[in-house]
């Protein structure tokens, strides 16, 4: 038996509204962005009440919905079980890819809102941007739009200068991440 085939990870799949959705392999840029965000979360949260998790952990939100976010923060340790997270994380990050964008911006955004996820980030590696939503009175409000934006977009120098280049994490008043750290080393 070939030693390289001795262990093969089962393909990742989510359950959305009772339907199984296979997840495609992540691109290098997707993986770098998700990893950079997780690293920033984990570094800041060391020794604090909340905990960071990276891609690969199942989150059970309803009987018909099991998702695998790219990164998340959980402050209620009681929802952390051996097989995954059973309940709403405090912050969820989804990094867009062509195959997931529709669900990330549509069904999942609505699901996270209804499940009580306090903060939701939709990260676009191609645009080097983040939409940050905060839950207020049971509804998501766009907190802000953060971006570095590639040069080929045709933005004016004024528009580039006015874009927010550091994203705060609402759970902590002194925690923010420079976008340069999130989007470093992308192709």
Order of helices and strands: EEHEEEEEEEHHEEEHEEH
Q: Strand order within the widest sheet?
A: 3-6-9-10-11-12
- Average pLDDT level: 92
Radius of gyration: 17 Å
* Low-confidence spans: none
Kindly estimate the percentage of residues that lie in beta strands according to DSSP. Answer: 25-35%
Helicity, in percent? 10-25%
Short structural description:
The protein is built from 5 helices and 14 strands.
Your description of this structure?
The chain is of the alpha+beta class and 187 residues long. The protein is 22% helix and 33% strand. The protein contains 5 helices and 14 strands. Strand 1 (13-16) and strand 2 (19-22) form a beta hairpin. The chain is globular. The protein starts with 12 loop residues before the first strand and ends in a 5-residue tail after the last helix.
Topology:
Layout: E1 13-16, E2 19-22, H1 28-45, E3 51-54, E4 59-62, E5 65-67, E6 71-74, E7 80-81, E8 84-86, E9 91-95, H2 101-105, H3 107-115, E10 119-124, E11 129-136, E12 139-147, H4 157-162, E13 166-168, E14 176-178, H5 179-182
Parallel strand pairs: 4-8, 9-10
Antiparallel strand pairs: 1-2, 3-6, 4-5, 6-9, 7-8, 10-11, 11-12, 13-14
Provide key terms for this protein.
four-stranded mixed beta sheet; six-stranded mixed beta sheet; alpha+beta; 187 residues
């Amino acid at each position: 038996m070939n030693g390289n085939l001795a262990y093969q990870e089962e393909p990742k799949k989510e359950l959305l509204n009772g339907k199984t959705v296979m997840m495609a392999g992540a691109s290098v840029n997707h993986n770098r962005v998700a990893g950079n965000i997780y690293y920033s979360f984990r570094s800041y949260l060391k020794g604090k009440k909340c905990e960071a998790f990276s891609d690969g952990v199942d989150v059970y939100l309803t009987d018909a919905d099991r998702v695998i976010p790219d990164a998340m923060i959980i402050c209620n340790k009681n929802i952390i079980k051996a097989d995954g997270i059973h309940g709403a994380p405090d912050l969820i990050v989804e990094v867009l890819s062509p195959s997931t964008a529709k669900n990330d911006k549509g069904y999942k955004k609505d699901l996270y809102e209804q499940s009580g996820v306090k903060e939701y980030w939709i990260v676009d590696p191609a645009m080097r941007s983040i939409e940050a939503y905060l839950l207020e009175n049971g509804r998501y409000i766009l907190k802000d739009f953060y971006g570095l934006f590639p040069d080929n977009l045709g933005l004016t120098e004024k528009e580039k200068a006015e874009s927010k280049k550091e994203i705060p994490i609402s759970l902590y008043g002194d925690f923010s991440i420079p976008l340069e750290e999130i989007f470093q080393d992308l192709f």
